[in-house]
Amino acid sequence: MSAVRSRPWAPLIGFFMAQISDSVSNLFDAIEMEMDRMIRVNLAGEQAAVDILKSQIASTDPSAIESLQNLHHMLDQEMCHLNYFQDQIRRHNYRPTILSPVWRVVANGVGFVTAKFGLHAVGSVIDGIEDTIEHHYRSQIKNCQYWMS
Ligand SMILES: [Fe+2]
To answer: What's the pTM?
Structure first.
């Protein structure tokens, strides 16, 4: 006589396991989509910062040596940020924003116009951008902390 054990709860366990698996899968999909969006936005922001600074450098009076040195220093930093996000886009196969060409034209225009208004305008725009970016990254950090809690 075979000893077949009855397991009436087995289908229930299977059902709950499938639900948990779907939930985890959906959670990972949602995180992946959010990461894609965040990296794409960050890449666009860093590209804009680089374009603004390059345009400001090209349009600033060459005799403003100290200001140009500061702008070049900031450009070096922004290039590091841009390279980081370009690397993330490649590594994770995320897609850059389709608005990138428009965004870059606007950024170059902002850099050119502010440089034509003088060093005070250049500094004000850079300060404003830095504040916005800092707020943006803090918001992203808060979102990541929320996911992890
Ligand atoms: Fe940056």
So the answer is: 0.81
